[in-house]
Structures are given as C-alpha cells and as structure tokens.
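During the reporting period the student researcher (J.K.) took over the structure-prediction task from the postdoctoral fellow and processed the backlog of single-chain submissions. One of the processed entries is reproduced below for the supervisory committee.
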Amino acid sequence: MAALLQTDLPDLQLLSTGKVRDVYATSSPDHLLFVATDRISVYDVILSSGIPEKGKLLTSISLFWFEKLKHIIPNHLVTVNIDEMPHEVRPYREQLEGRTMLVRKAKVVPMEAIVRGYITGSAWAEYQKSQTVCGIPISEKMEESQKFPTPIFTPSTKAEQGAHDENISPEKAAQLIGQDLFDRIQAASLQLYTAAAEYAESCGLILADTKFEFGLIPSSVGQDELILVDEVLTPDSSRYWPRDQYEPGKGQPSFDKQYVRDALTAAGYRKGLESGPNGNGEGWGIDDTVIEGTRKRYKEAEQMLKSLHS
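J.K. obtained the following structure tokens:
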C-alpha cells in the first residue's frame, strides 16, 4: 500500500501545503477543503517517507473527537460526505475518500494551545534545567513522566513551515493575541483536555499532552465565535501512552510520533541538520520497520479510543 505524499486535484486551487494537510479553495466562499495526506513530520521536519493510511487514521480520530467534544466548543467541520461537498470535489472521490473534510473558513489564532497533564518531552528537559515549564515555575519535585497535580496550559508560537514552534510564557501569549482571547482559549483548552483525558483513560490510554488550534468566525451577537480547527487529539498532535505500562521515572512507550522521533535521533538527527544527514538538502527518511510500526501504533490508538463505541 503506497503512502499519499502529495494530493493531485488540478481543478481545485491549492491554498497551502502544510506538514500533513493540503488546503484547497472551493466554489463555496465560506468553506475550505482539508485533505490529510500520509506525510509525517517530526521536529518540524517533513520526512521523505510517508505512513500508509495515516491521513485516513488522523481524519477518523479527529472526527471521533469533534463529535465527542462538540458540547464544549463548536468546531470547523461541515461534512466528510463527498456527495455533500461542492461539485468540483466529487471527481476526486477515490483520492479523497476517508481523508478529507469540508470545513468552515475561520481566522486562525496565531498561537498553539498546548495542555500538559504529565511532564515529558521538552517540558521535562526544561524542568531539569530550571524547575520551570515554558517559564512557569514548578514548585513540586517531579520525576520524568509524572502527572502534574493539575494540567497546565503552555502556549507556543505557530511557526511558518520549516521553522520551529517556540514555547512562550502565558504572559507573552496574552500580549500576542490579547488577554481576553487568551483567557477564552486557555479555559476551553483545559476543559477539552480534561474531558478527553478522562475518556482516554477509560479506554486504556493516558493522554499525556496535546495541542489544540483555534479559529474565529463572525457571530451575530458581536464578539467573534471561538471554534476548534485543524485536527484534534490525534497521535500527531498528542502523546498517548498505554495505561497498563505506565511507570513514572522514565520515558514511556507511546502510540504517537515519539517512535519516529527516537528513530530519527538514532539516525543522527539534531538541530542544524533539518535538511538531511549531511545538511545538503537530501532530506530525512525512515526505514520500512519504523513506517509499519508507526502505522500499527496509530491504528491501535484509533481502535482503543473507539473501543467503547464498537
């Protein structure tokens, strides 16, 4: 099964190509077409190898969470039924089935909303140096992968493709987007994470941390309405750990991109070598074992999340 690395929709206008998603204009002025490819990125680097079915798995998981969390905040999803999409989309059914969403246009907030329930990854690295996480002092003595007493909100910049997102303090984030909007996003993010983490645990998964993205759409009551956009709570944007193997004090096995990160690090990746092992633009790839292992992890996460609904 070949991975879909590039979409080919010549009758549609391609607006942007992201790390995973291609975004197209449609004949509907209020809607966009989001297509999840099988590309995978780690450390903000798009790899030359894709993960077969990954785009479909990401779409399936996002749809599940959009439906489950819609009582907390609205989202940008309009439909996944190609027959309900603009007519120019329908000839590409074979390429798009299972990996595309028609979504509402929104003004994307230029901040990524990260909620951390457990200390791991860059948060653990920073804590070891300064007893802070994204500049927030952590008074408790913690060990790797330990659960925070309460989840913490740690925003980051939303970087252009090829650049690195940067963790920023809540104060700087509030200056960037305005205090009122920051407060709305922080409250929604913590509510979304808490509900998702509770459900995931009932399925045998620990949701260690996740990243949300938000947009604004016009509202009839004055203030723009805040909605959830992009993907939500997928293994690309979240860390999922198997609950039955959880053991604080060390790194955890995972159902997310950490497996690929570890493989890339073992192959010699470090900052400064984003363009390839020799720094000359040849790119980074992963071998077939890592590709299949990643696909299986994503598939297993999807199955576990949906296990209570089967």
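The committee noted the following: The chain has a mean pLDDT of 93.
J.K. will present the remaining backlog at the next meeting.
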